[in-house]
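INFO worker-7 received task bundle
INFO bundle size: 2
INFO processing item 0
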Amino acid sequence: SANTGGDPYAIPLPGAESKAASPQVAKSDPATTSTSRDTATHVASRESTSSIVAWQKVAGSGQGRDIQYTQIGTGSRDLLVIGSLHGDVSDAMLICDQLSEHLTLNAAGLTDARITIVRDANPDASNLRSATTANGVDLNRNFASSDWRKVAMLNATQQDDSLLSGPRAASEPETQALQSLIERIGPERVLLLECTSPIGSIQYSPSAEQRAMQLSRTSGWRQVQMADSSRSGSLLSYAGDDRGIPTLVLNLPRSKTVAEGWEASRQTLLAALDVTVSSEATSASTEPVASTPR
């Protein structure tokens, strides 16, 4: 997965059209169909089937799968949402899809911010139903943060080939793509979604402490803690600590169906984004509008 010969994962700089008008679509409820968490659900989560959201390729994975993103809204405040770094957390990606559809359906009222959403940052791992990339690397140990260090797997027997952190910082194309995206759009807030517990919890960077406490009060999620400083090479370290971007990891409560999970997490997700969305969705139905991340 090494990057050789230039930067094939670089996100193209946009022109003046980067803040193109948001797609206008007919109003519907993105969570009207309940989908059970099973093998079929996991397979469906690898690639969004929504005809509402304008998903586009932002980069390629180590095995050549698309890493997809969408941008919603026309405001000047840039926000970034990442639907899990691990391929065994399909629930987070599916709820991320629900969030994307909800925001797209109400895009006409989203004028104070522009939200960039990466639904699956680790598609090779999703294909394998694994927490790590095809190379056995945990993306949340691979960011080029100031505290990055080599971290071996528990059962490692060879030096570099068995490093959970990867052989060097940002060794994986998936990590490179996310770092490039963060540098180019300069988000004022980053949300990472996980879904590994029956109850909701929040981790946060120091600059996001006030927002995390507010979310805890409004959501009832009582497990709130500052990021673990011993976890080197994490997204929280890279974006939150090194760059001072308020960064939140929202561990969404697991539910029996996607619809139930979306309903349980919707208000907390919208509050975490802190955006103003009009209660009236657009009435005209058109094809999704493509845009380029700036």
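INFO item 0 finished
INFO processing item 1
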Amino acid sequence: IKDFQKFFGSLFYFTEIRLHLNSRKIDLETPIEFIKGIGPERAKFIRNVLGITTVEDFLTFYPLRYIDKSKIHQIGDLKDEPEAEIQFKGKITDLQEIVYGKGQKRLSAKFRDETGTLELVWFRYSNWLKEQIPLNREIFIFGKVNLFNGNYSMPHPEIEIDEKKALYGSLLPIYPGSEKLSKRGINNKFFQNILTEITQSLPLLMQENLPEDLMKNLKLIGRIPAFYHIHFPKDFNHFEHANRRIKFEEAFFFQLGYGLKKLHQKTSVIGNPFPKIGENFNNFYENALPFEL
């Protein structure tokens, strides 16, 4: 718990600095087009495809899973098709468009490290994506490696130039995605950048909503560190604390709402009295019911 307090003390400090630097303050109801890195066109596309409209929607757009991105693999060490996404360090060369089938095109390139070569493939891409691919410079790629006819390939790799971002010191969140999103540059890296922007402002976006005694007795972490570590956990221990807190909060307020509704019905809703039973009821009860009461 002390580690959480120390970390988020620093987070509050840097958030106050960001508040003076940013001309527009955001809150949970702020439309996503005002988040840095999105804009009106992307916001419209994200709303239509994912149904995400506000900052709060993004905060509750939870990762599907997490992977360790701190290790660099070598192409020469590949034997079978790896089950999980992996990362390489090297250079992209020989970028070209290949026409196949009935006028279909794919983008292809070679990726080389000191131990070997694999093919990078983009089946669906835009001119913008093509122009963003860095050639003949040392970069990091990350993705799922496929093995076909003895050749390794990586479709739609994530590309990172910054070594600090590539060698992520924490667990890497993997968000829901699709080819339709990736074609517009809305991939896992995009979601990470957006959630990084939002979580840096968490102290301004939300307040604690559970009693301190309850949190202490149940050993729950605070709401702000929970939402930070559900997206960017330092390790699986931090993830478990965050996951437990968020699940409890959802269940707690669901039960609280149900209890208040039940109390309201008992105290405010009065049923219609039937002091007298007539011939129609007796006839229905005795002759029409297919079962006994």
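INFO item 1 finished
INFO post-check item 1: Confidence is low (pLDDT under 50) at residues 16-23.
INFO post-check item 1: The two ends are 58 Å apart (CA to CA).
INFO worker-7 idle
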